[in-house]
């Protein structure tokens, strides 16, 4: 690489959308029998992928090969796993294991040498069980979980490169990401929140779409308004109580 290729292109910002997270399925009795650890109840895959889904695929994300800018993804598992630090040096950047418990996975993304960028560190809480309507995780019986299907837990993010080198900028522009669909194409949730029963539910393949940003902003704005309204209610209540306290003090002083 020439020195000109390494020169930073000042004032230029370019990003690449990714998702990271996991999908998990409950194991049948027959599948558990062949495992060395019979207490393992789930098979799961943790991954770093491009955000867009492949057409007609049952996989979340992964439409693009990210190896043009990602050299390695390192997954740090719970220390009870053999060799808990796992390096994945080629796509797909994912790891499949079995287990029984949820824990935090550290994800380290190392970029190709042309990037001249430091690795970044992400954290993902491994999700094996569905969420309930209250937002809490519920552990259904294994036979119900098997009928339910996959539990998906994914986070959308954008890796931003500021002032990239000329060579790296060329590399990125030669590989534009697959655009996200504008709207929801499949009415499939990421989890089973707001469902009263798992018996009649069925998992599926969720999908990120560009409208999710607007929807999330609207949800945040609605939450902000509720917080402000609650603050105003409490402030009014406090003022009324202070007035009542003053009135009682005056009555006590005059008696």
- N to C succession of SSEs: HEHEEEEEEHEHH
What is the helix fraction of residues, given as a range? 25-40%
**Helices and strands: which structural class?**
alpha+beta
Strand content: 25-35%
Name given to the CATH architecture = Sandwich
- Whole-number total of structural domains: 1
| CATH H-tier superfamily | YEATS domain
Q: How many separate helices?
A: 5
Just give the CATH class: Mainly Beta
Taken from the alpha-carbon principal axes, the silhouette is: extended
Major sheet, described briefly?
4 strands, antiparallel
Strand order of the largest sheet: 5-2-1-8
Overall average residue pLDDT: 86
Number of strands: 8
Q: Radius of gyration, rounded?
A: 25 Å
**End-to-end Cα distance:** 92 Å
Low-pLDDT regions = 192-201
* CATH topology (fold) name: Immunoglobulin-like
What's the short story on this structure?
The chain has 255 residues and is an alpha+beta fold. It has five helices and eight strands. It has one domain (3-209): YEATS domain (Immunoglobulin-like).
Defining traits:
255 residues; alpha+beta; Immunoglobulin-like; 4-stranded antiparallel sheet; 8 strands; extended; YEAST_sf; coiled coil
Structure description:
The protein is α+β, with helices and mostly antiparallel strands. It has a single domain, classed as Immunoglobulin-like (Sandwich), CATH 2.60.40.1970. Helix content is 27%, strand content 26%. Strands 5-2-1-8 form a 4-stranded antiparallel beta sheet. Strands 4-3-6-7 form a 4-stranded antiparallel beta sheet, with no helix packed on it. A hairpin with an 8-residue loop joins strand 3 and strand 4 (85-88). The termini are far apart. Residues 8-175 form the YEATS domain.
């Amino acid at each position: 690489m020439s020195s000109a290729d390494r020169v930073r292109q000042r004032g230029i910002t370019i990003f690449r959308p990714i998702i990271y997270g996991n999908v998990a399925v409950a194991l049948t009795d027959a599948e558990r029998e062949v495992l060395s650890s019979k207490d393992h109840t789930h098979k799961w895959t943790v991954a770093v992928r491009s955000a867009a889904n492949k057409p007609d695929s049952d996989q979340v994300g992964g439409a693009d090969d990210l190896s043009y800018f990602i050299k390695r993804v390192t997954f740090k598992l719970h220390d009870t796993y053999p060799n808990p630090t796992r390096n994945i040096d080629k796509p797909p950047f994912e790891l499949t294991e079995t287990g029984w418990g949820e824990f935090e996975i550290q994800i380290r993304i190392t970029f190709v040498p042309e990037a001249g960028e430091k690795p970044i560190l992400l954290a993902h809480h491994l999700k094996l069980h569905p969420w309930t309507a209250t937002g809490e995780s519920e552990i259904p019986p294994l036979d119900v979980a098997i009928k339910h299907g996959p539990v998906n837990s994914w986070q959308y993010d954008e890796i931003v490169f500021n002032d990239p080198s000329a060579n790296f900028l060329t590399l990125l522009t030669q590989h534009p990401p697959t655009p996200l669909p504008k709207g929801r194409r499949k009415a499939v949730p990421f989890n089973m929140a707001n469902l009263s029963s798992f018996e009649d539910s069925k998992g599926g393949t969720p999908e990120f779409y560009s409208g999710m940003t607007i929807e999330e902003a609207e949800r945040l704005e609605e939450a902000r308004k509720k917080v402000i309204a609650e603050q105003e209610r409490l402030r009014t209540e406090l003022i009324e109580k202070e007035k009542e306290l003053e009135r009682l003090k005056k009555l006590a002083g005059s008696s």
